Amino acid sequence: MTTFILQQKRQGHSLLETLGAVSCKLQRMLDKHHQRRQLLRLDDRLLRDVGLDHEQVKMEVSKPFWQ
Asked: Which residues does 44 contact at the CB level (< 8 Å), separation at least 6?
């Protein structure tokens, strides 16, 4: 842990900045997960409106949350 903090300070990032960046990354991952689940609820008409088909939705939803 000490090494990590020292390395962060050498790079000009405080621990608070690093935690903020990690928090933002986690929030983006959760947002993607939620949006992918919402895609499953769209009917054929709405999928056509956004330019997707069921196969594309299945591929998108099957991705891990970190991608």
From this structure: 54
The domain segmentation of the chain, as residue ranges, is 2-61
Q: Decide if 33 contacts 23 (C-beta within 8 A).
A: no
Is 0.70 surpassed by the pTM of this model?
A: no
Angle between helices 54-61 and 15-39 (to 10 degrees): 150
Contact between residue 54 and residue 33 where contact means Cβ atoms under 8 Å apart: no
Q: For residue range 50-63, what is the model confidence (pLDDT) as tens digits?
A: 999 999 999 999 99
How many CB atoms lie under 10 A from the CB of residue 57? 16
Cα(38)–Cα(31) distance, integer angstroms:
11
pLDDT in tens, 2-41: 555 555 555 667 889 999 999 999 999 999 999 999 999 9
